[in-house]
Amino acid sequence: MIKVGIVGGTGYTGVELLRxxxxxxxVQLEVIxxxxxxxxxxxxxxxxxxxxxxxKFTDPGKAELNKCDIVFFATPNGVAMQQAKALxxxxxxxxxxxxxxRIKDVAEWQKWYGMSHxxxxxxxxxxxxxxxxxxxxxxxxxxxxxPGCYPTAVQLGFLPLIEAGVVDMNHLIADTKSxxxxxxxxxxxxxxxxxxxxxxxxxxxxxxRHLPEIKQGLFSIAKKQxxxxxxxxxxxxxxxxxxxxxxxxxKKVDLQTLxxxxxxxxxxxxxxxxxxxxxxxxxxxxxxxRIAVHRPQDGDIVVILSVTDNLVKGAAGQAVxxxxxxxxxxxxxxxxxxPLLP
Length: 342
Ligand SMILES: NC(=O)C1=CN([C@@H]2O[C@H](COP(=O)(O)OP(=O)(O)OC[C@H]3O[C@@H](n4cnc5c(N)ncnc54)[C@H](OP(=O)(O)O)[C@@H]3O)[C@@H](O)[C@H]2O)C=CC1
Ligand SMILES: CC(=O)N[C@@H](CCC(=O)OP(=O)(O)O)C(=O)O
Known about the structure:
Elements: E1 2-7, H1 12-21, E2 27-32, H2 42-45, E3 70-73, H3 80-89, E4 93-96, H4 106-113, H5 120-123, E5 127-128, H6 131-139, E6 143-145, H7 149-164, E7 172-178, H8 193-196, E8 201-202, H9 210-222, E9 228-234, E10 241-248, H10 255-262, E11 269-271, E12 289-294, E13 301-308, H11 312-327
Parallel strand pairs: 1-2, 1-3, 3-4, 4-6, 5-6, 7-9, 11-12
Antiparallel strand pairs: 7-10, 8-9, 10-13, 12-13
Bound molecules: NADPH dihydro-nicotinamide-adenine-dinucleotide phosphate (NDP) and ligand 2.
């Protein structure tokens, strides 16, 4: 058994980690932090975890995170970068669900995140935790930068096209939609029921924080500059990411075979039969990314549909997948949940 700590156990990704890790056969939950709920039994705040978790929330200032084998940060951007170094130096593995260690260019990170980086020396050490691309590096990582929710769906969707070099890299388009839980559990006006329900809107069209993250990931595969238009939307659902991706084909290729072959051995990427339209509810509560490939009217534009649950493959599930890889557990251990329907 490995001892696990979670910093930020009351947020949506933190609670999703609790749901998953409570039933993970190799995990003993040791510390779960919250500043606001310190002293409160976890299952009192979240009755869904009754008979699963008997710990109380600990104030992060008093939490003995050093006694853990691995610590997950499910905290807002800017928190993990202040605490990761001490844990790293103490030999504790760290998985950061926030964006603190995702962007290799620290100046670029500071521009998009509007703060100084507190720990630039660890950025180069961090491994970007997208197993479908970086599995070998993750095996030896001590610090994982867990990918963002949009970047997971977008990169997995574009990956086979880019690896095969069959699309125009200057004009990629990612039209993405997220459920409201993507904004976290903190109180914000735009996430109120009366603001977000029965409504649909785009946001951050001039530039979203995930743009440099996605471009960095696609660049690492293409080895050349990527022109990407990324438009996020907020949809009146709770969980889910739906990415509609467009690219112009530059070569003839059997797209269905390309995708089926690329992901044939990936446990959490499911390429649907030709002609399918994946729905977010087909992945809800699960670690799957389901992908369908289209070429409307046999033209030269390929349309990829990629769906994930933002809290699972887009956050906590992928974080546990990374943990499994680091510790040499079967990669799917504890994260083989069947999606919830309806
Ligand atoms: N929601 C999503 O779909 C996704 C989120 N992410 C990223 O994961 C991280 C967590 O997101 P999410 O769960 O939605 O966020 P929430 O706002 O729902 O939760 C944040 C958690 O962090 C704790 N926290 C806040 N400030 C601090 C602090 N200064 N020190 C220690 N703990 C703190 C909060 O508890 P308390 O205030 O009581 O301490 C709470 O438990 C974010 O960086 C987010 O960008 C990544 C992918 C998807
Ligand atoms: C719907 C919604 O608000 N989504 C969030 C992104 C989700 C997320 O948490 O991304 P990071 O992990 O990179 O912070 C947003 O657009 O800011």
